[in-house]
């Protein structure tokens, strides 16, 4: 074993200590600068979940359409699965992603809904059929079927449309608009205008 490095004179040891100290200071400053930069830099994150064949682009204040649509389907699933047994858990989960102005409205709507549902041996779930995005309004439409069943009875299904506006706020998706209605036809701008034209024409012919 060789000890030549430790057996040098004082001058050499002093120089080595100075170099080591200087290097440590440079490294410390570099790490500090990089840490500050990472903490304050808002980068775009691209997520490709293993079970999904598309990429989601998520930024601090925005995301791509595919992300918003998938998130709307998830929220629809929570709403559709709500019953007397899990009403409070559903409200708690949804409130994490609802704007403050929607939280009370959603809670009251869900509580009113479950009052008319059986309290035991009842299951409900939502099956999405189609998801669309309207660029002019920023609305996402999730159409599908709200299914329900009592233990041992036949499954009942009814068409329903869930309507959302979702925005990224501080890196988190937040629902700022919500509506739901029976049927399979989303209330897009073109649909509303057509219905208004038909209604106006009907009134004119009276």
TrEMBL record:
Spans traversing the lipid bilayer: 12-33
Pfam families: TraE
InterPro entries, per the entry: Pilus_assembly_TraE
Alphabetical UniProt keywords: Membrane, Transmembrane, Transmembrane helix
Domain of life (superkingdom): Bacteria
Name of the protein in its database record: Type IV conjugative transfer system protein TraE
Species, as recorded: Acinetobacter terrae
Native organism taxonomy: Bacteria, Pseudomonadati, Pseudomonadota, Gammaproteobacteria, Moraxellales
């Amino acid at each position: 074993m060789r000890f030549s490095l430790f057996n040098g004179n004082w001058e050499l040891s002093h120089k080595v200590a100075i170099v080591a100290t200087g290097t440590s200071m440079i490294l410390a400053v570099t790490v500090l600068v990089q840490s500050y930069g990472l903490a304050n830099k808002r980068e775009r994150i691209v997520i490709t979940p293993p079970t999904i064949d598309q990429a989601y682009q998520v930024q601090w204040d925005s995301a791509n359409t595919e992300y918003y649509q998938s998130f709307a389907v998830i929220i629809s699933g929570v709403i559709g699965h709500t019953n007397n047994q899990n009403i409070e858990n559903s409200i708690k989960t949804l409130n994490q992603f609802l704007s403050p102005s929607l939280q009370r409205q959603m809670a009251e709507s869900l509580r009113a809904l479950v009052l008319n549902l059986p309290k035991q041996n009842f299951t409900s779930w939502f099956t999405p059929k189609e998801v669309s995005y309207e660029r002019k309004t920023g609305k996402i439409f999730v159409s599908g079927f709200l299914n329900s069943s009592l233990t041992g009875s036949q499954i009942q299904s009814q068409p329903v449309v869930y309507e959302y506006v979702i925005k990224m706020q501080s890196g988190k998706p937040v629902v700022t608009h919500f509506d739901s209605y029976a049927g399979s036809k989303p209330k897009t701008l073109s649909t509303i205008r057509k219905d208004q034209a038909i209604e106006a024409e009907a009134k004119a012919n009276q």
